[in-house]
Design goal:
Layout: E1 2-6, H1 10-19, E2 26-31, E3 46-47, H2 51-54, E4 59-64, H3 70-81, E5 85-88, H4 91-108, E6 112-113, H5 124-131, E7 137-143, H6 146-158, H7 162-171, H8 180-183, H9 186-200, H10 219-227, E8 231-241, E9 244-254, E10 267-274, E11 278-285, H11 289-304, E12 331-332, E13 334-338, H12 343-348, E14 349-355, E15 358-363, E16 366-367, H13 368-380, E17 385-390
Helix pairs in contact: 1-11, 3-4, 4-9, 6-7
This protein binds L-homoserine.
Length: 392
């Protein structure tokens, strides 16, 4: 099968390398503004004009690894409508335009796959879809951001400070171009949207799901967790209970009995719960050129070999009752740190200790949304604040 790659950065070049190990895949064209250093020998494959790809009838499939939303949205939609299959690793695009992409695929009778968009090298979305063939899913949750996991693991392990650990994750190619989306939880939010929509035939959007990241975590928080036997992770949670869908992204702390507590470096651990299968977890590298690149090519091979899931992705129809988020029933006990015992804070506090003017607290069980709103307020008024759900 002749294919093209749009965007030859960390993931695109990883896909190119993985394709060398696959039978029957020829990369005919690469869309990028410049030839990536080290790839001068294939400079003749490079083009900066999307029409060179669209008008090439030999190209049956296009890999999109550009990142961002607006330009890939236009290019991917064009490719799908022109009947070219698309594999994309672009979570921003899939999260923002899921329905539109499915419609374009249906119009062009083309296949759309996006396994690498959540979980990096892990075949999470592929298996999520597969699990649904003979099961009813009730929950998805997990560590889905390699950068945050790398940072938190370094802080726990060696007392590294936040900035140094982030710089290292950037150097290793785990972080986004602008790492704000990693550390503020937006990247995890996008993977939560994609996983939720796929798991529950939903059509939820990013603005419906409360999300908080780890940018305000301190060495003192980590010290507190270490001395109490807890490990901090950034988590996505999504579940259906009594026909209602809840979803949120937040830091959580885990005791040593949980698998999550043992996830190191850039790894992800993503879990589904099904009425038949029970709890099923997927572990592996959630970011990086080679792991994510091979996941792209796995999807390409599946399309080439005609591997179908229960239905093409574009056959999905969102169910009305799972297209809005109802978090009211989700109550958690939280760890939180602040320096300002206002009435609002005192009311939710169950226990606390004060060290040098900093309050280390355990909350009463409170609704998820209440804690997220408090964190947002503290950020707006520029007061130090960090919270983490105590995962039972
Ligand atoms: N920045 C992302 C992460 C890349 O760290 O997980 C993979 O989606």
């Amino acid at each position: 099968m002749k294919i093209a790659i749009m965007g030859f950065g960390i993931v695109g070049s990883g896909a190119y390398e993985a394709a060398k190990l696959a039978d029957g895949i020829e990369i005919k064209k690469i869309l990028d503004l410049r030839v990536r250093p080290g790839y001068e020998d294939i400079a003749d494959k490079f083009t900066s004009d999307i029409n060179d790809i669209i008008s090439d009838e030999e190209i049956e499939l296009v890999v999109e690894t550009m990142g961002g939303v607006d330009v890939p949205r236009e290019y991917v939609t064009k490719c799908l409508k022109a009947g070219k299959h698309v594999v994309t690793s672009n979570k921003n695009l899939v999260s923002a335009c899921y329905q539109e992409l499915n419609e374009a695929a249906a119009e062009g009778n083309a296949k759309l796959r996006f396994t690498p968009a959540a979980g990096g090298g892990i075949p999470w979305l592929f298996n999520l879809r597969r699990a649904k063939r003979c099961d009813v899913l009730t929950e998805v949750r997990g560590i889905v951001n390699g950068t945050c996991n790398y940072i938190l693991d370094s802080m726990h392990k060696s007392g590294a400070n936040f900035e140094d650990a982030l710089a290292e994750a950037q150097k290793l190619g785990y972080a986004e171009k602008d790492p704000t989306s990693d550390i503020e939880g937006t990247d995890t939010l996008r993977k939560c949207v994609i996983s939720t929509n796929l798991a529950f035939d939903a059509n939820v959007t990013e603005d419906q799901i409360p999300a908080c990241g780890i940018s305000s975590i301190s060495a003192e928080d980590i010290q507190f967790f270490n001395s109490n036997g807890y490990t901090c992770k950034l988590m996505m949670y999504s579940k259906v209970m009594d026909g209602k869908l809840s979803a949120y992204v937040e830091p959580a702390i885990f005791g040593p009995q949980h698998l999550e507590a043992n996830v190191k470096a850039n790894n992800n651990l993503i879990t589904l719960v099904g009425e038949n299968v029970g709890t099923l977890s997927f572990f592996g590298q959630g970011a990086g050129s080679a792991p994510t690149g091979q996941s792209v090519i796995q999807d390409v091979i599946d399309i080439k070999d005609g591997v179908e899931m229960n239905a093409p992705f574009h056959d999905y129809f969102p169910a009305a009752e799972t297209s809005f988020i109802a978090n009211e029933s989700q109550l958690h006990t939280y760890y939180f740190r602040h320096d300002h015992p206002s009435r609002m804070i005192t009311e939710i506090t169950d226990k606390f200790a004060v060290v040098d003017g900093t309050y280390y607290c355990i909350s009463k069980p409170i609704p998820v949304v209440e804690m997220h709103e408090l964190a947002k307020h503290m950020k707006q008024v520029e007061r130090p604040f960090f919270f983490a759900h105590i995962h039972e």
